[in-house]
Amino acid sequence: MTTSTNRKPTKRDCFNALLNIEAVKNDADLVAFIEHEIELLDKKNTAERKPTPKQVENAGIKTAIAAWFEADTQYLASDVTKDCPACAGLSAQRVSALLSQLVADGTLVRTEDKRKNYYSLA
């Protein structure tokens, strides 16, 4: 089994490599087992997962932050941390992370001016 980078092979890589071995190809039970294991990996990767309690809490905070923003006004992350009631008691790092998530969602727009990030409604 060769990889183009120096990364540890995944279970899927190992199973696929086993399927390419001639002795394994000739054993129907081994092939069936390996294919079943690959199916289990596929099922695990596509499973619907419930959000964690922290994710649910963050969703509520992000909604409140977006509602607090005024149209055509730009804010620094520090302004949001100090002035937004939903951010009371939150660290500047957490507020900044939430703002980045809102930018990724398309709710907010981030503009940079003189190495400072300003946030405004999209």
Q: How many structural domains are formed by the residues?
A: 2
Low-confidence segments, given as residue ranges, are none
Overall spatial form: elongated
Order of helices and strands: HHHHEHHEE
> Strand share of the residues?
5-15%
- Main-sheet strand order equals 1-3-2
Q: Please report the total strand number as a whole number.
A: 3
Distance between the termini: 48 Å
Estimate percent helicity.
55-70%
Return the CATH class of the largest domain: Mainly Alpha
State the fourth-level CATH superfamily of the largest domain: Winged helix-like DNA-binding domain superfamily/Winged helix DNA-binding domain
Tell me what the structure shows.
This protein is mostly helical and 122 residues long. The chain is built from 6 helices and 3 strands; from the N terminus they run H-H-H-H-E-H-H-E-E. Strand 2 and strand 3 form a beta hairpin. Helix 1 runs antiparallel to helix 3. The model has no long low-confidence stretch (mean pLDDT 89).
Describe this structure in a few short sentences.
With 122 residues, the chain is mostly helical.
From the structure above, extract its key features.
single chain; 122 residues; mainly alpha; Arc Repressor Mutant, subunit A; 2 domains; three-stranded antiparallel sheet; 6 helices; 3 strands
What is the element layout, followed by pairings?
Elements: H1 11-19, H2 22-25, H3 28-45, H4 53-68, E1 75-76, H5 77-83, H6 92-105, E2 108-113, E3 116-121
Antiparallel strand pairs: 1-3, 2-3
Helix pairs in contact: 1-3, 4-6, 5-6
